[in-house]
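Batch job 17 of 40 flagged for manual review because the log was empty.
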Amino acid sequence: MKWIKRALMAVALVLVLFVALLIFLLATFDPNAYKDRISTAVQEQTGRELTISGDIGLSIFPRLALALGETTLANGEGFPDDHFARIREVDVAVAMLPLLRRELQVERVRLEGLDLNLARDARGRSNWDDLLKDVDAPEVSAETPPSESDALPSALRGLDIAGIEVIDARVRWRDAQAGTDLVVDPFNLTLGRLRLGQETPLELTFQTRLGEPALTAVTDLSALLYLDVANQRYGLRRLTATLDARGETLPAPILARLEGDLWADLRNDTATLERLTVTAFDTQLTGLMKVESLTDEPRVHGELRSGRINPRQLMQALGMEEPETANPDVLKNAALDLGFVMQGERLDLSQLMVTLDETTLTGRATVSGFATPAINLSLQVDRINLDHYLPPAEDRPAPGAGQVPAPRDGWPEETIDLPLALLRPLNLSGDLGIGRLVVGNLHLSDVVLELRARDGQVELRPFRAALYDGRVEGALGLDARGEIPRFQARSNLQGVRMGNLLQDLTGEAPMVTGTANLRLDLNSRGDSVKALIAGLNGDGDLRFADGAVKGINVAQIIRDAEGRLRGRAVEPTDEPVQTDFTELTGSFRINNGVVDNQDLQASSPLLRVRGRGTVDLNRERLDYRLDTGLVATLEGQGGRSLDDLRNVNLPITIRGTFSEPRFGLDLAGVVSGRLDQERERLEQQVQERVEEKVQPLIDQQRDRVQQEADRIRDQLGDRLLDRLR
């Protein structure tokens, strides 16, 4: 950042002033006599007051040594601190004879009590700007790299410093624009014998304090420092740094350790961090990093991998509440392995591998634009049981004998807190494949998900999976642009073994079995379960084949009702309590939480069923009618034949609440109607039999009457002819 560069230039300028002061004093015998003259010169050049409160000590032979007491440089105008820089004591000694050979051998450099105040006001003005107003940075041509002689002055080629000490230094940075108040105090540095091209031990300790929010960090660093100015290669080998950070914004104290080898090759514009090891919270990361294009737009790439991580212990160390899970043995084993590339506003994660308990996730991820990130994911999971990570099921006491669970008092009205503020700016595109998935105790395989989120709209499409010998395809959508979220869901099940699905879903014997095809197209709007039910709309259709409805045997119910009606004892049977069907079909529409079905049809070798009615999800009430007909004898089904009821419509009504449905079958009316039909049939048979007996007599008498009439007519005709003659 530019302000850091300018701050370093200001610090360098201060050091140059002290070096210039040293050179000036070397030419005098009584340096203390020139304190006022030095202060006046600084005042004229910088406009700031330089105060030398301590004594100036100077010796020339056998070493050139300077000891400078307390010295203060005033702060810039308009800044609150009374000084910009203050030094309690400086002690520098240079070997005299090597200096005559144009070799710089420094026997000691000791700086004690440096106090530096750096600041920027609300207008963006820094308290070192006036010190740099006449300083122009030298221009370096990109086409002509500096030669070795330009890069390294001849006086520095034989640089030899016996040791450097910085004791009890303090640096404060206050930024009125950002509201930052940062203090580094104390800062202590010890450097062994320094020669160019050779390693020397380095020890560094400093404490950092941040004002608001309060944060304190203590850093200890040790390494072997390597400086090769001629080849522009610098390094910290066998680097070891420890951090102890504590503060209000941290969930827990951070104790971290970093090890590695840090190298900077400025000639090739690169830097590397090799043999990297980071340890914190009983977790260790290893890897390497390389930075290219240091002076342009840095490109950082590398690899990171972790050892075994115990997420539960990590959460405890971070002061986080450990989640309760249905399986207490999960969240105990995790690991991470990845490669990464970061340049500008883009981060690419490749060779990503995350293991969690028995699950392995692989793939890649890309993040573009860190302020408003655009995220792209492509992930594969071998297997995962999500039920293990859900909260444990509540322990509900089983109802005692004769007890009936109290009905629920409507749907919950509590607001569902969705993170709408986070979803609206989310820009995410990704695909996820899962080999085996368990969720809600349902077992799925070959799961494929494609997730898209942009401008407040989140879509999961398509969703495909193998499910209980069949397939499921669908899509889910969430519109978070408004204050009240909207939901859409489409699903198409083909060839699913519904009995196995319901068995796993409910943990109980399924009420319906068979191979199911089911289509759903639903939408709703609301921020609570009650509102979502009230806003539910859509349609669907279903088809079951070769299944059964468990818990009810329609044929046995009809037999029992018919037996009671006729005063017969109920015959015991070993038949299973179920009604088999070869096919069950129907369609439905949902309007504001009311499901309407008018075309339910079911068929079996014994029964034909048609159904119609409504299910009000809002009030949790049923109003349904089943028209049932016997189409075959019940002989061989464990009971007496009911041929009398064959082809007779048997209406079954289902009314009441979900928790207490009422079933009705008016078999007396059906039998009475059947008896009326039988009476009419018998009357018709009697009439037909009577007609069979009487009709021949009538025909016989009619023939006799006709013969007598013919005889009388013949006699009358003969008499009439006789008279005419």
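Reviewer: the log was empty due to a logging misconfiguration, but the result itself is present. The two ends are 159 Å apart (CA to CA). Unflagging and moving on to job 18.
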